[in-house]
Amino acid sequence: MKPRKIPLRKCVACQQMMPKKELIRVVKTPNDEMLIDLTGKKAGRGAYLCGKLSCFKLAKKTRALDRALKSPVSPEIYDALEQDFIKVEDEFQAAKAAMEDDGS
Ligand SMILES: [Zn+2]
Question: How far is CA 68 from the centre of its chain?
Answer without folding.
Answer: 11
